[in-house]
Design goal:
This protein is of the alpha/beta class and 187 residues long. 52% of the residues lie in helices and 13% in strands. The chain contains 8 helices and 6 strands. Strands 3-2-1-4-5-6 form a 6-stranded parallel β-sheet, sandwiched between helices. The radius of gyration is 19 Å and the shape is globular. The protein starts with 7 loop residues before the first helix and ends with a helix.
């Protein structure tokens, strides 16, 4: 997938068409957004065979969360397909994931994303992307050099209500186009 310009709509279409489903994914941080993304990605199991969850600050509570989550949603959530790692370096040396979701602290986004891109991983970063434009330009340049996907702010595009609004907007655009053709034909 070319990374020259990666729009959110391309990601939505890829997910809708089941094109952008890697075999293994990593989620960097098991905080609130990391757990939300883990829950969403678990819906793609078994197409996603392994989810790697990095939990540097709270691995015990993350393992407890996984155990409790599997008890309440057995048919959608297979904790055996989710590994919890205590740090990113350990994960990078012991797994073959293709895509990483960066959901750690904003101050850590730049270093984490840079490391992942250098390792040849596609990276999806929660917002804020980075804390200054210099870092943003550097990461975009690195992603382009390595022909990797680098996208930002996915919590909204993964939400079901966004898909609904997109469908409504597409319908309205179609109706406006049809209305425009009809009125222009009348003159």
């Amino acid at each position: 997938m070319n990374n020259q310009i990666f729009h959110k709509s391309q990601f939505i279409n890829a997910v809708d068409n089941n094109v952008f489903i890697p075999d293994e994914v990593a989620i960097i941080s098991a905080g609130r957004w990391g757990k939300i993304i883990c829950t969403i990605l678990a819906q793609f199991q078994p197409r996603i065979s392994k989810i790697h969850l990095v939990s540097q600050r709270n691995s015990k509570s993350t393992k407890d969360w996984l155990r409790n989550k599997s008890l309440t949603t057995k048919d959608q959530f297979n904790p055996d397909q989710i590994d919890v790692w205590s740090n990113l370096d350990q994960l990078l040396h012991n797994s073959n994931f293709e895509v990483a979701f960066v959901t750690n602290l904003p101050a850590e986004h730049y270093e984490t994303t840079k490391l992942l891109l250098k390792q040849g991983k596609h990276v999806l970063v929660e917002k804020p992307f980075v804390l200054n434009t210099e870092h943003a330009r550097e990461l975009i340049s690195l992603a382009n050099e390595k022909n990797l996907v680098l996208a930002v702010g996915l919590e909204y595009i993964l939400a079901s209500y966004v898909h609904y609004f997109r469908q409504v907007i597409e319908l309205l655009q179609y109706q406006c186009f049809t209305l425009h053709l009809t009125t222009s034909e009348m003159s």
